[in-house]
Each structure stands twice: as C-alpha cells, then as structure tokens.
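Hey,

The postdoc asked me to send both predictions to you directly instead of through the lab channel. I've kept everything plain text so nothing gets mangled by the mail client. Protein one:
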Amino acid sequence: MISEQLALKNHLHSRAENILKEVESLEAINQNKIISNVMQEVLQSIDLAYKNNKQKIEQDIFDLALEGIANGKMDYQKDPILPYIIETINKTVAKFSNLSKEEQ
C-alpha cells in the first residue's frame, strides 16, 4: 500500500513537472510570436512613414550625416525615423497592456 502511494505521488509530481515545462515552452513560443509581430508592425510603420515623408526624411538624414561628419561622430538622437518606431512600439505595448484577464 505504501509503495502504491509513493508511486502515485511520484506520478503526480512527474505529471505536474511535465505540465509546467510544457507551459513554460508555450509561453516562450508566445513571447517570440509577440516580439515577431511587434517587429513586423514596426517595419511596416517605417515603410509607411518613409513612403509618406520620403523627401523630408532623406533631407533630415543628409543633414544628420553632415552634422556627424562635422562633429566626428554619428548620433541617432535626432533620427527622423525613430519617432515612428517608438510610436508603433508604444501602440503595440498599449494593446497588450489593456488586455483583460480572459484575453490574456
């Protein structure tokens, strides 16, 4: 009887451990999928921003290059595309932040 209880206890422990490993694996897959989606949205927003503001972006990049040459170093602080990237990431993060318990 004791050996049966030990076997049952070991089986339950093993099963619980396998379930937790599976959940951890699924969570990692889900995180990678979310990151991939965010990257895809960012790339699309960059393409759209460039398409809609091509002349201004190219002029700003040229001016930044001249400024970098004059200063002896490049600085991405004034990158004209960076605001579009940040805006898209913030929108995506906001979508996930506002999920209900059921949606999570």
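Protein two:
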Amino acid sequence: MEIMPTEIMLWIALSYMIVVSGGIAGISIIWKGFQQKETWAKIKGIGGGAGIVVCCLAADLLILLRGVSVLGEVLMAIAPVILLVAIYFGKYLQKISEKTLGLPSNI
C-alpha cells in the first residue's frame, strides 16, 4: 500500500488541529470558563470551549478514523450551533444580571 502525499498532509493538518486547537486551546477555554464567578461568564467559556473541542478534536479524530467520517461531519456542523447558543444565552444572562444589580449595560 502506497501512501500518497495528500494522505500525509491530511494527517499532519488534522493532527495539528486535534492537538493545538482542540486539545490546548479548547480545553484551556473550558478550564477558564470553570474558573469564572458569574454564571453567564461560565456559560460563555465552557460553551465556547466545548464548541472548539467538538469541532477540532472530536470531529477531526472521527474523520481520521475513516469509518465514522459522516459523524465527524455532523459534529463539525453542530459546533457553530454550540458556540452561538453559549454566547447568546450567556449574553442574555449577563443582561439579566446587570439589570438585577443595577449596573449600566455598556460594561
């Protein structure tokens, strides 16, 4: 079995995405989310990191496994939805907490 240069580039690119984006960046964003005091900031951090981990770690691993690449594509399609829901729900909770505490909305 001959390995083509495009196959090698696929493995290099997806391995980089798995390690750097999904592993290091995604997990560190989730970790910072858990360290936040406000609920809205936790939701934004954990949800944002989860979206990155789903797209860059889980989906790319599934694509490299070849047999489950369709599931990987589904996870890539779901990742932006996770990000958007986390951001908008966190923003909604942030506005509610600002109104409750009487803080100006431009903070």
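Summary for protein two, as requested: The radius of gyration is 18 Å.

Thanks,
C.
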